[in-house]
């Protein structure tokens, strides 16, 4: 255990639980026990899982140190510890401790949580041991809720302790006979001390907390017009300046920023207009390609069969297959099997049941048309013509998926460019000495207006980075022309977008 992290308290068997509720959790997947790489940031000799671990040691091995999304981790209530796809422990997430470029979770193990022994509630196939997500479970009623009164009592205790601090007093040594204090050596007086500067302590603590919260206005947002807020604002401005330029040297928490790039692109750029136009043009290209050449005419190559269909859904009834051409042979499932030997038994059986009238299909209306080849040679010729048409259509159909892949690549590059500028701007904040952790998330944020909830300093950094970063619509050409150029297709195939 490290000095900064007290031994975690395990929950007792008498823990009482709340009703099941949806909570945000982080899943931590442990591997087999192995020696911890040294020096270990948490002072551990071993990491990983082995049977027989006590609750406290299990928590110590699971809580860190991880490459994690700091802002997302901070939203979690529980840490679910998993080994071999089974929950072996559950802990609370009460604080996050940075360890260079990684983080550790501070909290307590809940050894008797009902999830222990259950399957991984956030199972996925990713090799990343860290996964986040909502789960429905219970919380211990004994988990400290940290209400206002409790936090206030703790703050009063700390300030009272600070008011009782003493500081050293210096005394001169080897004073000349004339009493001159020039060039005199000073040392700590071993018998005297004086009360520490309590006002300085309070002012520095207030400035540090304000910097951690993101700025003066963010800290006072709860009741910014009150007389208390006016007094605190005056004290802070006298300490860090009216514009707060000297605030950031007081920050002690890492500056964590999550950039939800899909939100930024949608809210702050016009990228979507170009991609909407690209999707419309691709759809037009598909329609034009499907029309030229037209679908292969079945009649020269196939015997066509139809049947009557009455009704729809479970009450639908069908008649026998009747040839359109009286010269056609009678239809049979055996001939159809020879004509269309689908190697997939499940798919084959599904179509056979539809042809035999035993399956309705997803439309709710039984199929009323089928066909058989007039000869093996004509079947081969029909297949050749269909392949030629498919060869023309496949590259155009592929554009729909390719344009989305390109969009994701471009917003990822945009997110990384914004991240680089945010980090650069954050490092330029006067006196900022804490890590700046910027995470680029390519998913949509979990609620609306996510970026308007950012602390002022973070919002300012992001806004400046957005102004300095070329937007995706500033890329040359249009989304579709860039895609066609990258695939080697002539730009004229895009229909010359404006």
Write up this protein.
With 498 residues, this protein is an alpha+beta fold. It folds into 4 domains: 21-137, no CATH class; 148-175 and 182-254, no CATH class; 256-283 and 385-494, no CATH class; 305-373, no CATH class. The protein contains 13 helices and 17 strands. The chain has helices at residues 55-62, 70-74, 148-163, 198-213, 216-219, 227-240, 261-268, 271-291, 333-339, 345-355, 376-427, 456-468, 479-487, and strands at residues 21-29, 34-35, 46-47, 78-83, 86-92, 95-99, 102-106, 130-137, 166-173, 185-195, 255-260, 302-306, 309-310, 317-318, 322-323, 369-373, 436-441. The chain has a 4-stranded mixed sheet with strand order 5-4-1-8, covered by helices on one side. Strands 15-12-16 form a 3-stranded antiparallel sheet. The model is unreliable at 1-14, 446-453 and 492-498 (pLDDT under 50).
Outline of this structure?
The chain is an alpha+beta fold. It has helices spanning 55-62, 70-74, 148-163, 198-213, 216-219, 227-240, 261-268, 271-291, 333-339, 345-355, 376-427, 456-468, 479-487, and strands at 21-29, 34-35, 46-47, 78-83, 86-92, 95-99, 102-106, 130-137, 166-173, 185-195, 255-260, 302-306, 309-310, 317-318, 322-323, 369-373, 436-441.
